[in-house]
User: What shape does this take?
Amino acid sequence: MGGGGRDEQLMRSLVEYLGCGVYYLDSGGDHGDFIVTRFSDVTDKILPFLEKYPMVGVKAKDFEGFCKAAEIMKVKGHTTESGLEEIHLIKAGDE
Assistant: This one.
């Protein structure tokens, strides 16, 4: 397709609406990445938005795991061996 089109416009609008993150379109213009680097933006902006406007299908299960991992990180559980292992299990789909 090239140029990003409507998807690119949508993602750039999300960056503006949420007030966080950046959107990078790949060099071929076929897809891009929405990147949020501040954990507080994830917990305070992204998660509430996605809870208000839930995903469906397979992505809903991915989001559930993402929320579990975020909760572990919120309490600094990722700094322990057991917390890190739990995140790995979530990522692998075993949790």
